[in-house]
Design a protein that fits this description.
By secondary structure, the chain is α+β, with helices and mostly antiparallel strands. 20% of the residues lie in helices and 25% in strands. The chain has two helices and five strands. The strands form two sheets. Strands 1-4-5 form a three-stranded antiparallel beta sheet, with no helix packed on it. It has a two-stranded antiparallel sheet with strand order 2-3.
């Protein structure tokens, strides 16, 4: 799976980083950056992605089809 962040939408709430700290972290601008999506199981990744209140995290399958949001 591919994970990206729309930094224009990200407000730095940090739910994703709290759920999956090996995948997401907040940078010096208080915006989320993606670290290693393969470091957690798929269920945890989905939980973290869906926890974003701004829907700023984009999840795609390996072929590039957008799965979320």
């Amino acid at each position: 799976m591919r994970v990206s962040v729309d930094r224009d939408l990200c407000t730095g709430v940090g739910n994703c980083a709290a759920i999956a700290p090996t995948v997401f972290r907040l940078d010096e601008e208080n915006k989320v950056v993606v670290l290693d999506p393969s470091s957690v199981d798929e269920g945890t990744l989905w939980d973290a992605v869906q926890s974003c209140p701004e829907k700023a995290i984009i999840l795609e399958d390996d072929s590039g089809t957008q799965l979320y949001p």
